[in-house]
Design goal:
Largest sheet: 6 strands, antiparallel
Shape: elongated
Radius of gyration: 15 Å
Strand order of the largest sheet: 2-3-4-5-1-6
Strand content: over 45%
Distance between the termini: 18 Å
Number of helices: 2
Structural class: alpha+beta
Number of strands: 6
Helix content: 10-25%
Length: about 110
Amino acid sequence: MLSQKYIYEGNNAFQVMNQIESKSSFISDDMIIQRCMIEDTYMVSVVMEQFFFRTSSYASCSLCFIGNDHEIKAICTASGAGQGVFNFSLGATKNFFTNAEKLLLENGFKKMI
């Protein structure tokens, strides 16, 4: 399992969030997006999954965003598993994570330590 926290600071954070949501489909076709807004704070959860029939394995990546129009904090978590002897994701977990991280960094997010 891989996990990393990110932060976006600046104006127009809502627009950045919408761009990331629309570009998430390039990472995976199979995904669910949930949105919630309370006053000026919003939360967006993007869950992506891919199943590999040949190895009976899967990989998933979850992006969780919490923020307002000036700051967004994000957590990216990727995992994978298989069935039987091949109980691993054959690199798909890292691939999912790398693609999600690239999307965040290209849109102005920075890694948090």
